[in-house]
Amino acid sequence: MKLIGRRNFLAGMGLGAGSSLLPSIFRSMMPEALGQTRLPRRLIIHLKVYGSEASHRPQPGASDDSFTLGTNWSPLEKYHNELLFFDSFNNPYNRFLHGNRWPLSVVSDGHKDEEAGTIPPGGISFDRFMGGQLGKTDAWPSLNLSPVWPDPKGYYGSSADGPGKVFPILVDPVDAYAKIFAGGSNANLSIEAPRRLARDQSLLDFLRADVTRLSTGLAAPERAKLDQYLDSVRGMETRLAAFSKSKLSCSALVPPARAAFTPTWGLDGVAYAQMFAAHTDLGINALACGLTHVVLFQFAGDYYKFLGEDGRIGHHHMWHDEGTPIKFQKFYNYHATFLAGLRDRLGQLGEGNGSMADSTLTMMIDEGGGAHHNGSDRIPVMLLGRLGGALRTGRFLKFAKGQRVVSDVFVSVANLLGVPINTFGTMSAGPLPGLS
Hints:
Blueprint: H1 3-9, H2 21-33, E1 42-48, E2 59-60, E3 67-68, E4 83-89, E5 95-96, E6 99-100, H3 126-134, E7 143-145, E8 160-162, E9 165-166, H4 173-182, H5 187-198, H6 203-206, H7 208-216, H8 220-245, H9 269-288, E10 294-298, H10 315-322, H11 325-348, E11 350-351, E12 354-355, E13 360-366, E14 379-384, E15 395-398, H12 406-416
Parallel strand pairs: 1-10, 1-13, 4-15, 7-10
Antiparallel strand pairs: 2-3, 4-14, 5-6, 8-9, 11-12, 13-14
Helix pairs in contact: 2-8, 4-5, 4-9, 8-9
């Protein structure tokens, strides 16, 4: 296909049912197809809560900037040289007993009640800001995936488009699948997606005519890339099918009413673990298919009984009365395994001369900071990903208490991803030195 043909191909496709998913896949292929060497930059945010004591974190090594992961974070050892660990940052805004409300906004919400649990955001959150910068033409500028059950006003969350403008959490994986991969201009697709999951059928079968039309118009390299994306989506559908069958019968036309869904505090451990796994599939495939460039995974502090411990295995509960070393280790091992799993999946998706891992930065940040109560001036941050060598990794950077604020991290990440800013939220001292 000639270059001009590639440029104009999408406009003349006349796509039918696949008018949301397939153009996004095609757009994600275009830079490489057109010979552009700069790959799209992507951001994953892993947000956990309730803090971590200094002894629970990776520790400084023998040299000034080296570190050891220890038993808590050992599942990340294979990516040791791709990690950059910061200790630690201050967030003076919206503090309450267990951390910071709206920790990705770094702006005051105007409320004084430290115990307020349902307060509106005071400004745009970092995930939504970066989504608007990196994914201006994306179907979803960013995604917010979590098993956390929001309060009725939607204020228990971390994602916002501005003062008082909550960006909602996608909780139910089947609902989220229908919205992310089957939304857009064809409303019937949102109904068809869960139907086909329940019947072990692929949404891509429903889009067969559009897939064929797209594939036959591509040159061989782009056709191979399209096949890779579609295979990844099919794999995700297979894993989602098991989850959806517990909620949908084979004859169901639409998902069950929201009232039938059990809030997270009532879920058994197996269901909660399945939701985590399903959200991972959704986020990675949405990135791979070009539907978004930014994904936020928000984790609750409780409901980790699937880790195999008796009693209350939630992080909040462990802080108070059942925090044995083995429980803390299992809890942190789970989060480290989640991060390593994201990196594994990114490394399996080819892009350019390498993989999607070369152009994706994962940031883990703890809303609660240091100690379980009042630790917001000791917030740890971990970055995973070299960004093609743009980021100097394999290091531990320690800042004195109060020296830097968490918005400095956001400014630094934005600049690393090609978004030149000097401040974010209400305050920032600018990018952190010596990262690139």
